[in-house]
Amino acid sequence: MADLKTIYFTVTNDLSFDQRMYRICGSLSKAGFDIVLVGRQLPGSVPLSRKAFRQVRLNCWFRKGKGFYAEYNLRLFFFLLFKKMDGVCAIDLDTILPCLFISKIKSIPRVYDAHELFCEMKEISGRSFVYRFWKMIEKFAVPKFKNGYTVSKPIANEFRKMYNVQYEVIRNLPLTDGAERIAAGERFILYQGAVNEGRSFESLVPAMKKVRSKLVVCGDGNFMEQAKKLTGENGLEQKIIFKGMVAPEDLKQYTKAAYIGVTLFENKGLSNYYSLANRFFDYINAMLPQLCVNYPAYKEINDEYKVAVLIDDLHADAIAKALNNLLEDDVLYHDLQNNCMKARKALNWQIEEQELIIFYNQLFD
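User: That's the sequence. What structure does it adopt?
Assistant: Structure tokens below.
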């Protein structure tokens, strides 16, 4: 590039725990781009850590619902309007309109970073009015974003079929440091990530009654209260520990110390069925065998590397049986662990970031 290009990335979270965006922005900053990551300020937001790129939080009166999205999109639009930039990137559908309008006003390239099929998430697809609203935005905006990328081939194929856009696949892989696992203490099962609808907590929680281990949950989301209620109803308060949001460095320690990871999604909506969750790769990087759903993107990787036990049946009894088998079958467990060690040499951000850098270099050619 002949000169430094400034790109604004927009999200609706408060930035503190967004490891995906930290990796993306960090890689592009290291590659010579001037990067600004924009999110929102929340009452409980912790101070931002120093990064190689700039970070900005916008204050909003509304905290959730229609009021929040309307206010945040307006604030984001006027914030971007008066900033000098060479490109803008919308992260998922909830910031796509301001980025579209700003790119047209400023005549700059626009990019859609689709972490998922937004309208097919259970919390969207299960509410008819909400679904119609976001689908209307998607149909209006996505075809106008010819440049974009997503996390898996099945999702990229869906965008091509729906909107005739050819999106790249840039997977959300972790940075690998080659670190070893923490010496095993108490064997515990780990769920890390968003505690949202559609993540199989309705089955996972009662399954733990029959599992000979504890479950540690690191994360928060729109199903947290229901998950805690289910835990109480099943008398599992001493067996399921909710840690809430955990700082990235602390989360790594939980992942290294765990004995089994879980990656479960209900097969309700294409977003779950075609997902390729961050935690799937985080477990691999930590050499942590996992129980995972047998959906296309996971099966493709597991067919090559054999790093997980895949299940089709997400009823509580089936989950409990699979977890207990992993706890008891030492040969299977160590085979999976050794395969993780090999897989992380290929499935890591140090390799995947090269595709990201090529994408943005070509954007400004």
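The mean pLDDT is 94.
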